[in-house]
Amino acid sequence: MSSTFEQIANIIAETCDIPRDTIKPESHAIDDLGIDSLDFLDIAFAIDKAFGIKMPLEKWTQEVNDGKATTEQYFVLKNLADRIDELVAAKNAGAGTGTGS
Amino acid sequence: MQLDYFILIDRIVDLNVGNKTIVVEAQVPTTHTIFEGHFPGFPIMPGVLLTEAMAQSSGWLLLGVNKFERMPFLAMVKEAKMRGFVSPGQLLTIEAKLEHEGSGFAVTSAKVRVGKELKCSSEITFRLVPFPDPAFRGHMDAMARKIGFPLQAMGHD
Fold this sequence. Notes:
The complex is a heterodimer. Chain A is an all-alpha fold. Chain A has helices at residues 3-16, 37-51, 57-65, 71-75, 77-97. Chain A has five helices and no strands. Chain B has helices at 33-37, 47-65, 134-146, and strands at 11-16, 21-27, 70-82, 91-101, 105-114, 117-130. Chain B is globular, with a radius of gyration of 15 Å. At the A-B interface, helix 2 and helix 3 of A face loops of B.
């Protein structure tokens, strides 16, 4: 299991008071776990801090609203873990070039 | 402090956009009907209003950091601690610091002091939303000038 998923699941369990064992990689944060937008802000803050990233929530939301992406791509937890891994990799690649931006 | 208009701060003492900090002053009025009920014979500033003062101070900081591109709306208050009574007539010094700027939201920490004494503190989350209409933005511009907001931090000349 992805360690990223484990971290996300622990954050969600703690932030939203959801039993940890009910949070699965296939869980949809909104449809299955019932996380609302305010709780998701809290989760985003915790994830941003834990991984040193800035999740582009507004971009993702816009893509969903424009029909260019589905909520599953971002809010099914195994997919969210993949997105976070990509953001962390992009951050580390940026740091490695020495450009810092 | 104009309690009737829900304006909980008076002036910006220091706004440091680079450090993402702000210092604000607010003079608690010596008399107000609020103190007649809160509490009879023992007037103190309600904790919710002190929390609002921290939120408004944080809001001006966020407006400075994002150059008035987005309006901060209060979303979440965490760890609000009322550490001591605030009495009518006291001068509050409110400090706020940007702890995290996320995508469409921001988190600040804020503290209220009277002199050197820490009176309350909190972590506050805001949604950052484009101004719903130009008149609202104009109102915030006017208010910014009134409270001594540094003009160079307002995003226009």
